[in-house]
Amino acid sequence: MNRTHPAVRALMTIALWAFVFFLAFPLVWLVLTSFKPTAEIIRSGAQLWPETFTLENYRVALFQERVMQTAWNTLKIAVASSLLTLAIATPAAYVLARRSGGVNRPVVGWILISQTFPVILIIVPLFMILARMGLGNTHLGLILVYTVWSLPFVLWMLRGYVRNVPVEIEQSAAIDGANHFQILTRILIPLILPGLVATGLYGFINAWNEFFFALVLVKSPELQTIQVNLARFRGVEGLARWGPLAAGSVLATIPTLILFAFLQRGLVSGLLSGGVKQ
User: Fold this and answer.
1) 121-168 pLDDT, tens digit each
2) In the chain, how many domains are there?
3) Residue 40, domain member (yes or no)
4) Contact at 8 Å (CB) between 37 and 56?
5) Distance (Å, rounded) from C-alpha 207 to C-alpha 144?
6) Does 202 map to a domain?
7) pLDDT tens digits for 160-213?
8) Domain for residue 10, yes or no?
9) Quick check: helix, strand or coil at residue 177?
10) Residue 83 contacts by C-beta under 8 Å, 6 or more apart in sequence?
11) Three-state SS for 240?
12) What's the predicted TM-score (pTM) here?
């Protein structure tokens, strides 16, 4: 029976709506700014709500700044890197969670230590390695980089999801004649599907928002990602064109919002189940 005082519930509701407003306000400001003409944006004391709505900023972003092309490039890279990361991390997490041995501790140590490396320390050798492999200035090279960069955290998370599955289920399948591959694909993966959704979404967002690797490793304009493209929304004197930049940022946000909307339930349940036991 809920015995919370009405005044306390009211305060909790107000605090919740204040937090939602705090999180949503930058996005609302961005969307409204994308519909403002340039003169209104740069004017001192501009209001939140546009006085004059215009689609010129979206026209410039779509047809002059190649936002859709770079968004398509980023979408391909993000989807491929997240799927490749899951394909590698899932069987590796199964082995780490179910097999105890001398290799487990060094692998777990590598997972933790790898998250402390600054990107700037590895970018030069990484650039040289990709160039010697013929993968410099290619989407494939960037996909491999994002896969390696996301793999430690995804492997760590999936290890926790696998450990949450009772081992008795696998033992029963083994008694019925299932091998390790069948146990992994037919039993374990369906049970940890929310965890796969959560970690796959992490890999996707990690690749979609990444800027530094894409800036250094990809030089051809037709291969650029959307984050690098948005950073180039500047005039000849280095002044940002705020209207097209806001419009391009709104367009860059739409795919991730759609993905979160479709995978929200699996993401929440995956995060909760993965945080129970490590």
Assistant:
1) 888 888 899 999 998 899 999 999 999 888 888 988 888 888 888 888
2) 1
3) no
4) yes
5) 11
6) yes
7) 888 888 888 888 888 888 888 888 888 888 888 888 888 888 899 889 989 999
8) no
9) coil
10) 200
11) strand
12) 0.81
